[in-house]
Amino acid sequence: MTERKRTPWVVGVSGASGTPYAASVIRGLLAAGEPVDLVVSRASRLTLLDETGIAFRDAHWRDDLAEWLARGADGKPGTFAAGDLSDVRYWAAGDLAAGPSSGSYPVKGMLIVPASTACVAGVALGLSKDLLQRVASVTLKERRRLVVAVRETPLNGQTLKHLVALDEAGAIVLPASPAFYSGATHIQDLVDFVAGRVLDAAGVPHGLYRRWEGELGSARPRA
């Protein structure tokens, strides 16, 4: 019997605020049985350190990722159970010879969560200044699914032009914009809504948020 070829989703984490979004997306992918290739930009390490206190290190990435994924959106350690990371592969942001830098490397697509405006500009212009941007360019040229969860406000005209360019190139532009109709009672609910919408765009099943069913007030607690 031929062994099934591993075909992961690439998750790119840029330097924008919103590292809990990335953690929720990764947890959702793994819960759905989807393998993950992870690229963490240099700038995002500073954001991760600031938002969680976790120093993400290449040589200890598995331990650092486990700690990150176990942390809640409010920063509380041990909020989530330590999951199985055996199907996660990590690629350093400076490794332009990494597997996903080539179109011949099999992946389902790429999710950039969160995407900074600098990352958006780099991908829109095809700069490929690091592995994250290179993989995004490869994803577009191979006509694979690219979801860009931009996290910035307000947006200036140049960034809006870059987002339009990404949309025209085939990417899905998904602002990190939480909704409140799903009955959020905790910051984690708002984070999971955005992560769930990212997974929706990727076609990955999940149960991260309550979906709209056409009934007003259906998400509010019953008296």
Q: What this model shows, in words?
A:
- The protein is an alpha/beta fold and 223 residues long.
- The protein contains 7 helices and 6 strands, in the order βαβααββααβαβα.
- α1 crosses α7 (187-202), α4 (117-125) crosses α5 and α4 packs across α6 (157-169).
- It is globular, with a radius of gyration of 17 Å.
- It starts with 8 loop residues before the first strand and ends in a 21-residue tail after the last helix.
- The model has no long low-confidence stretch (mean pLDDT 95).
- It comes from Streptomyces polychromogenes.
- Its EC number is 2.5.1.129.
- Keywords: Flavoprotein, FMN, Prenyltransferase, Transferase.
Structural class: alpha/beta
Q: Going across the major beta sheet, what is the strand order?
A: 3-2-1-4-5-6
Radius of gyration: 17 Å
Number of strands: 6
Characteristic key phrases:
6-stranded parallel sheet, alpha/beta, 223 residues, globular
Summary, kept brief:
The chain is α/β, with parallel strands linked by helices and 223 residues long. It has helices at residues 19-31, 42-52, 61-70, 117-125, 131-141, 157-169, 187-202, and strands spanning 9-13, 36-40, 88-92, 109-115, 145-150, 172-173. It has a 6-stranded parallel sheet, with helices on both faces.
Question: Topology, please?
Answer:
Elements: E1 9-13, H1 19-31, E2 36-40, H2 42-52, H3 61-70, E3 88-92, E4 109-115, H4 117-125, H5 131-141, E5 145-150, H6 157-169, E6 172-173, H7 187-202
Parallel strand pairs: 1-2, 1-4, 2-3, 4-5, 5-6
Helix pairs in contact: 1-7, 4-5, 4-6
Catalytic activity: dimethylallyl phosphate + FMNH2 = prenylated FMNH2 + phosphate
Binding site for FMN: 15-17, 41, 151
Keywords: Flavoprotein, FMN, Prenyltransferase, Transferase
